[in-house]
């Protein structure tokens, strides 16, 4: 109930008023039935802007850290993400990937929309990074279409480290649904799930116009952090 109050009466109208998002390809989102919406991830704002413009409810697999923060702020953040129907997923340990797949399949089994960021984390520099194969495993097992989505302009309004977004117009594009029924039963084949994932990422790339990096974002972030540690910038 609280989800719909936020979406239609509070947060949704406010976000549409402030950011005036241009919406392209909304007709590709099915009116009913299970489907995966797979998008790029440029900003914390993505969590709110895309759901705000969809007619249907969409559930994202959110990182567990959003639900376990300390103090009053942490509790408020956890309560908010729970209230809008987001599912916490522990990304650490060997079972993390399997837990995310189980949760995602549970959403789709109910005939709902599942939102996934295949990169696994926000881009730290605005580029599109290599997709993780969990989205492919879920899509093949569930036998549902994947709708690619591109957020354009959200990195500029709220890059990493910026708590309050700039008020600036953004664009949200949806592409034609991708059908992976030809891969049925191959969700345990590495070549198959890599091919499906790469096809999804290519569709997102075509929509977003980003530069592509054939490396996982987490690895690239770690390398950048290590370089900053070794060669810190001197204050001017």
Automatic annotation (TrEMBL):
Span of the signal peptide: none
Record bears the keyword Transferase: yes
Entry keywords, A to Z: Acyltransferase, Transferase
GO molecular function terms listed in the Swiss-Prot or TrEMBL record: acyltransferase activity
InterPro entries for this protein: Plipid/glycerol_acylTrfase
Protein name: Lysophospholipid acyltransferase family protein
CDD domains: LPLAT_AGPAT-like (cd07989)
Phospholipid/glycerol acyltransferase domain span: 35-154
